Amino acid sequence: MDYGVGVRRKEMALQSGTLLPLVFPKHSSGAMAHAQEIRVCTNRTCRKQGSFQTLETLSALAPPNLAVNSCGCLGRCGAGPNLAILPDGFIVAHCGTPAQAAQLVATLFSRDDADATSSLEALALRKRAEIEFQNRNLSEAELLLSQAIDSEPFGGMHVLFKCRSVVRLELGNYRGALQDAREALNLAPRYSEAYICQGDAFLALNEFESAEQSYLASLDIDPLIRRSKSFKARILKLQEKVAAVNTS
User: Fold this and answer.
1) How far apart are CA 99 and CA 63, in angstroms?
2) In order of start, what are the domains of the chain with their CATH numbers?
3) Which residues of the chain have pLDDT under 70?
4) What pTM, to 2 d.p., does this model score?
5) Measuring CA to CA, which residue among 94, 97, 96, 100 is closest to residue 113?
């Protein structure tokens, strides 16, 4: 049966916090270790069962080498939220809570329950930091993100460093912001948002050539950002700063 993503009918279920194989091929554990992408059904039934929350959690916890995307119906409507693990084509059913999503990522990379728990705790700290940042409590946001980083979750570290880079830039700690952006890129070399943060830090430090190179690198990874107002504003600010230096 075709599920729209080239997925074969190999199924697992997450029940009571335990990953249970339903139809599990021989040597499947080795195949699972090579997972490259998780696709989350966001069709109507799975959406009602919480697939958007699952998608958000998986995106936040996934290591840089694991892509997480939405997709259409995978079949088994009513047993969702349903996921597909590619390229091997496993179907995962009933992955409807953050704990189950974290456990799935931990299982894919042969980590234990403690790793799943620490990743969820780091994600909770990051969400608290986002609220503090929105409320302009920048020092508290930085502290929360530092606590999340110090917990060393197995997934999402590149996002944590990127977020702290943004906060440190707002605090005026430009060197710290640059260091965090570089840490994010060390973990995820194709992370366009980290290149944006690196460019912002270079721009604040008046290192214009490096800022331009960082922005161009982000554009090379994600050409669609060229259309965003924020990216256009960054380029305009860079041009204005360069012009001011050239005319002074």
Assistant:
1) 16
2) 10-111 (3.40.30.10), 114-247 (1.25.40.10)
3) 1-33
4) 0.82
5) 100
